[in-house]
Write a structure and sequence with these properties.
heterodimer, A: mainly alpha, Arc Repressor Mutant, subunit A, 3-stranded antiparallel β-sheet, 4 helices, 3 strands, B: alpha+beta, outer membrane lipoprotein receptor (LolB), chain A, 11-stranded antiparallel β-sheet, 46% helix, elongated
């Protein structure tokens, strides 16, 4: 799915991302997933700090689809593999660039914090 | 992990959640309902295995999820034009304040009115569409101001009148009719009436207020005058009673709920003249002209003109205009048979520049020399009022709503404070949000000042209620603005997630 025409092609223009959007993009970085799997992975990865409800999850996915960050996968699971009603989502190339830009931004912030010895024991 | 299909609890909870999902816009629901329900069943199933506390936690988590995602999805579904239309309709509802519409709709009207502030902020964005919206909205506002919208409200229309017929008898002058009327009242042995005062405030925010009154009079005997009006047009009544028997004169008023002995009847009725819209002194002054001097209808130098005869309320009446040197111009309709007053009207200007006018019509249903039983002259003070009820309009449900408004205001304040501090730090719009400790202290101070004024007898409970309401609506408006800003996040992608 191509990014919407109104979007800037520059991923930097999309920053900063909200924690939820960043976490959803991150969970899709290593492959396509369905909604519940994304929710579980985000909760595990953030040690329970980011716990999304179904409304938050699907509202975000809906907007990310429209913004072109993610795309719906053509793949449908077979009946014995998983629930075939589930939709799978994958990262688009634009979404990947946005994720990379956000990760780089966060890394720069962490690097700055390190240089100021924020993490040093007091 | 699949839910246990045999669990009746899971089925019932899913049934409830399926109902909750109907709060979302249809398009969103059609696309995601199945998956959301599936996730719910899996998580709920896990929570039931973990115990009652886990179920409670998950239910709360879900409630919060629904609470903050439903408005967001709707805000993205409803076209801005529709929102503007609702706002304009709300304003119209507020404008037609006295129209027979439910109180809640009026509150919504208030919400839209206060929300307009948030709507106007949209102008600061660069969008041409936003500017067009503002122009359209302003157009609606100006249209409402200029349009003769009062005519749409039957209650605000002037009372119907039949054609005026000129009087052909040259001996029947205005002064003669007036003299006969005065004589009838002066010689009445007993008199009783019931009636109502319709006060129509005409201007940008037109409204109507109706007070009812009643008089019972026995010459050289008892006297009772009472009137009542509604608190804020609700069904709680504000009553005023003036009573006389022998040399004892008492009065009682809901606002000052103690039986107060008075020096004399003249003094007591004169004190109620303002709040009773003159009904306490008009007819009582005619009944006892020797005891009540200086009444609005007692100036013998006033110019009286007979305009003609007219049928009102099925009665043939003389229509007179009476203009005193330093008083209002009264129009009187005097029953052509009994010479009792059927109706009095007068107008006054409040604020000339703002075209504010007050039209007052007093409708009498009088009875001359009726049998008066002792029961109709009994002094019956009303029940002691509940202080808290009057703070919010004199009605229990209004009181509950009032407290709910205060609580919601506080809650919204907290939500805004947390949300805006985190996301909007340093943004130019932040000053628009009445949030933070200072604002919180301001609310408490406002509440305390108004409550103090009320307890001190100043009676500003309505002011306080409206201030709190306005504050609450402002918070709602600002919340809508925040949702709107975030809904535009497709481009900037500052989604509320």
């Amino acid at each position: 799915m191509k990014p919407a025409a109104t979007l800037s092609p520059d991923p930097e223009a999309e920053l900063p991302l909200t924690p939820t959007v960043f976490n959803i993009l991150l969970s899709l970085a290593d492959g396509e997933k369905h909604g519940y799997a994304i929710m579980q992975e985000v909760e595990e990865a953030t040690e329970g700090r980011t716990r999304m409800g179904p409304g938050t999850l699907y509202g975000s996915l809906d907007r990310m689809l429209k913004a072109g960050y993610i795309a719906e996968s053509d793949r449908r699971p077979t009946a014995n593999e998983d629930d075939e009603r589930r939709r799978y989502y994958r990262l688009s190339s634009f979404g990947r660039r946005v994720l990379q830009a956000e990760a780089a931004r966060l890394a720069r912030a962490v690097g700055l914090a390190r240089s100021k010895k924020i993490f040093a024991p007091t | 992990m699949n839910p246990d299909p045999t669990s009746p609890k899971a089925g019932f909870a899913a049934w409830i959640y399926r109902g909750v999902l109907k709060l979302y816009p249809a398009a969103f629901r059609q696309r995601y309902e199945g998956e959301m329900l599936q996730i719910f069943q899996e998580e709920w199933s896990q929570a039931t295995r973990d115990g009652v506390m886990a179920c409670g936690r998950y239910a709360l988590h879900l409630a919060w999820d629904v609470f903050h995602t439903v408005p967001r999805e709707w805000s993205m579904t409803i076209p801005r034009v529709a929102l503007m239309t609702v706002a304009a309709a709300g304003l119209a509802i507020f404008y037609l304040d006295s129209a027979p519409i439910p109180f809640l709709l009026k509150v919504l009207g208030w919400a839209c009115l206060n929300g307009t502030f948030a709507v106007f902020i949209v102008v600061f964005s660069k969008s041409t569409r936003a500017a067009l919206f503002k122009a359209a909205f302003l157009g609606v506002l100006v249209g409402l101001m200029l349009a003769p919208i009062n005519s749409l409200n039957p209650k605000l229309a002037p009372p119907p009148e039949s054609p005026l017929v000129p009087v052909t008898d040259p001996s029947l002058t205005g002064r003669e009719v007036y003299r006969r009327m005065e004589e009838v009242y002066r010689k009445a042995q007993t008199y009783a009436d019931e009636g109502e005062v319709q006060t129509v405030y005409r201007g940008f925010f037109s409204s109507i207020q109706i007070k009812t009154f009643g008089t019972t009079f026995v010459r050289d005997g008892g006297f009772r005058f009472g009137f009542r009006d509604q608190f804020d047009r609700l069904d709680a009544w504000n009553e005023y009673v003036i009573w006389k028997e022998g040399g004892s004169v008492k009065e009682w008023w809901t606002i000052e709920p103690q039986v107060a002995p008075q020096k004399d009847l003249n003094n007591a009725l004169g004190g109620a003249a303002g709040v009773s819209e003159l009904t306490s002194v008009l007819v009582p002054g005619l009944l006892q002209p020797d005891k009540m001097s200086g009444g609005p209808l007692s100036d013998s130098r006033a110019q009286i003109e007979l305009l003609g005869t007219q049928r009102i309320d099925g009665r043939e009446t003389f229509k007179l205009q009476r203009a005193a040197a330093n008083g209002p111009v009264f129009t009187l309709w005097i029953d052509a048979r009994s010479y009792l007053i059927a109706r009095i009207s007068h107008s006054s200007s409040l604020l000339e520049k703002m075209r504010m006018r007050v039209d007052e019509t007093i409708i009498y249903r009088p009875r001359l020399n009726p049998p008066v039983d002792a029961a109709s002259l009994i002094f019956k003070p009303g029940p002691a009022p509940n202080v808290w009820r009057y703070l919010f309009g004199g009605r229990n449900d209004a009181m509950i709503m009032g407290f709910a408004i205060v609580l919601l205001t506080a809650l919204l304040n907290v939500i805004h404070r947390r949300a805006l501090r985190r996301r909007w730090r340093g943004k130019k719009e932040l000053w628009l949000a009445p949030i933070g400790r200072r604002a919180g202290a301001g609310y408490v101070g406002l509440f305390a000042i108004c409550a103090g004024l009320w307890l001190g007898g100043v009676g500003l409970d309505e002011v306080m209620r409206n201030l709190m309401l306005a504050q609450f609506m402002f918070q709602c408006g600002f919340l809508l603005y925040v949702i709107h800003r975030r809904s535009r996040g497709h481009a900037r992608f500052t989604m509320a997630t």
